[in-house]
């Protein structure tokens, strides 16, 4: 486990000292080597369920796919950022790459931590590089406002979790995941236990984000540079789902008083954010709200606490991470050429860039869960487990799926079809770098069709 963490840490000084000529090439190759090495986490977990065990870090079938996704994303973020960062001064380029690498190191440590306090520290520490990336390299003046939103939402959710973990430490004497799974759940009075459970979950529901505490996410996505949007959509949101799965193994089954309102809000939020997507004109806002909608399904899958619910949530998190990251990449390639994110101004791309339209089509179909992609598998597994829990949920999940198909096709048709606007006189062709970036998002997604048990936990 330390092998990957130390390799990632050593990339930070490398970004700061290497000659300008080789900066991007070396960082890209180095991060690809780390990504390929991370495939070893998908090894056999027979026996204890843990592998690469150390005193503070280990990998199990739940954290392995998320770890590999985190490592896989760094080279893709470097590829995506190269276009707009080349115009910046060299010192800014170095700082930017160092921050991306630092963020990856913190995320790897968070996903592999076996001590809940170490996990909490890393969970909160990921906020710092994200905040700097959004507030320094964001696209518009609103970026400071977005930074304030993300800071206060995350910290407000996170501080009660720290108190809950300290209560757990006091009652049971340990925060190690190895030991906690073997101990009886903590004994508190019923009202205190409900409060403790709610504080444990609230931080993760804000990070996920659940409808109602989701307003920081669209702001952060719209203001962030492309790498910020990619890491937010693909990995940082998944920290919330992963934290919930981890805490569920510590708690006793949740009481109905807590679980019913949360599942109802999550399912209702899917429909609400889906309908918000239907009236968006900003490409990035639409993709950001679609993330909130998909994460609502993940939250409800985890909250019903069945093995199928957990497996479906994990499949959904991985496949959504790759799909939404690819969508942000494609939105960024259009933005870099037209300097507009408005779907009203950027139309008819199909005639100008036909191959890009093919990428848009594949990614959009993945977003609306076309069979046999893992996106569909995740949605079906969660919906089946929800239907087994309560047959009424089929109305909400079915409606949400229908709305998802509507807004994804709306995004595809609006940006790619129709006449080319008169103000677009010429368009630079898409570079090999950008084609490589999108294909490296979609290739794992297509290969996972062949072996979906890798990401089912």
From TrEMBL:
| Topological relation to the membrane, as annotated | Multi-pass membrane protein
What reaction does this enzyme carry out catalytically?
A: a ubiquinone + NADH + 5 H(+)(in) = a ubiquinol + NAD(+) + 4 H(+)(out)
Primary enzyme class:
translocase
Q: Which GO terms describe its cellular component?
A: mitochondrial membrane
Segments forming domain NADH:ubiquinone oxidoreductase chain 4 N-terminal: 1-109
Q: Which InterPro entries match?
A: NADH4_N, NADH_Q_OxRdtase_chainM/4, NADH_UbQ_OxRdtase, ND/Mrp_TM
Q: Which keywords, in A-to-Z order, does the entry hold? A: Electron transport, Membrane, Mitochondrion, NAD, Respiratory chain, Translocase, Transmembrane, Transmembrane helix, Transport, Ubiquinone
- Top-rank lineage group of the source organism: Eukaryota
**What GO molecular functions are on record for this protein?**
NADH dehydrogenase (ubiquinone) activity; NADH dehydrogenase activity; ubiquinone binding
Enzyme Commission code(s) on record: 7.1.1.2
Any idea where this protein resides?
Mitochondrion membrane
Q: Which residues cross the membrane?
A: 21-42, 62-83, 95-113, 119-138, 150-168, 195-217, 224-246, 258-278, 285-304, 310-331, 352-370, 390-413
- The residues covered by the NADH:quinone oxidoreductase/Mrp antiporter transmembrane domain are 113-404
**To which protein family does this belong?**
Belongs to the complex I subunit 4 family.
Purpose of the protein = Core subunit of the mitochondrial membrane respiratory chain NADH dehydrogenase (Complex I) which catalyzes electron transfer from NADH through the respiratory chain, using ubiquinone as an electron acceptor. Essential for the catalytic activity and assembly of complex I.
- Per its record, how is this protein called by name? NADH-ubiquinone oxidoreductase chain 4
Tell me what organism the protein belongs to: Samariscus latus (deep-body righteye flounder)
């Amino acid at each position: 486990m330390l092998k990957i963490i130390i390799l990632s840490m050593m990339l930070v000084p490398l970004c700061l000292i290497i000659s300008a000529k080789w900066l991007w090439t070396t960082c890209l190759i180095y991060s690809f080597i780390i990504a390929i090495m991370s495939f070893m986490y998908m090894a056999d977990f027979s026996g204890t369920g843990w592998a690469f065990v150390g005193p503070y870090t280990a990998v199990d079938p739940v954290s392995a796919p998320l770890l590999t996704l985190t490592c896989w994303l760094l080279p893709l973020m470097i590829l995506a950022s190269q276009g707009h960062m080349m115009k910046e001064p060299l010192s800014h380029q170095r700082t930017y790459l160092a921050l991306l690498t630092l963020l990856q190191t913190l995320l790897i440590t968070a996903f592999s931590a076996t001590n809940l306090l170490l996990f909490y520290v890393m969970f909160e520490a990921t906020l710092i590089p994200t905040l700097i990336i959004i507030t320094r390299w964001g696209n518009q003046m609103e970026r400071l406002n977005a930074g304030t939103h993300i800071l206060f939402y995350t910290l407000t959710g996170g501080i009660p979790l720290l108190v809950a973990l300290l209560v757990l430490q006091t009652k049971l004497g340990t925060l190690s995941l190895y030991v906690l799974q073997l101990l009886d759940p903590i004994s508190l009075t019923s009202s205190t236990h409900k409060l403790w459970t709610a504080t444990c979950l609230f931080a993760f529901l804000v990070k996920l984000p659940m409808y109602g505490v989701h307003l920081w996410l669209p702001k952060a996505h719209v203001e962030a540079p492309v790498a910020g949007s990619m890491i937010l959509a693909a990995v940082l949101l998944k920290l919330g789902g992963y934290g919930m799965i981890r805490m569920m193994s510590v708690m006793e089954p949740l009481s109905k008083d807590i679980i019913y309102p949360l599942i109802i809000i999550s399912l209702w939020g899917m429909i609400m954010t889906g309908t918000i997507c239907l009236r968006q004109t900003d490409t990035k806002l639409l993709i950001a709200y679609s993330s909130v909608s998909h994460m609502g399904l993940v939250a409800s899958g985890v909250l019903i606490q069945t093995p199928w619910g957990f497996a479906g949530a994990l499949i959904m998190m991985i496949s959504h991470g790759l799909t939404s990251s690819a969508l942000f990449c494609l939105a960024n390639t259009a933005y870099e050429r037209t300097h507009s994110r408005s779907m009203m101004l950027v139309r008819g791309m199909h005639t100008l860039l036909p191959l890009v339209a093919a990428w848009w089509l594949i990614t959009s179909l993945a977003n609306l869960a076309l069979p046999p992609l893992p996106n569909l598998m995740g949605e079906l597994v969660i919906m089946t487990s929800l239907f087994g829990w309560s047959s009424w949920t089929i109305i909400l999940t079915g409606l949400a799926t229908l709305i998802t198909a509507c807004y994804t096709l709306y995004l595809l048709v609006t940006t790619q079809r129709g006449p080319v606007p008169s103000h677009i006189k010429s368009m630079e062709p898409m570079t090999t770098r950008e084609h490589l970036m999108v294909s490296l998002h979609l290739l794992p997604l297509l290969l996972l069709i062949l072996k979906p048990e890798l990401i089912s936990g």
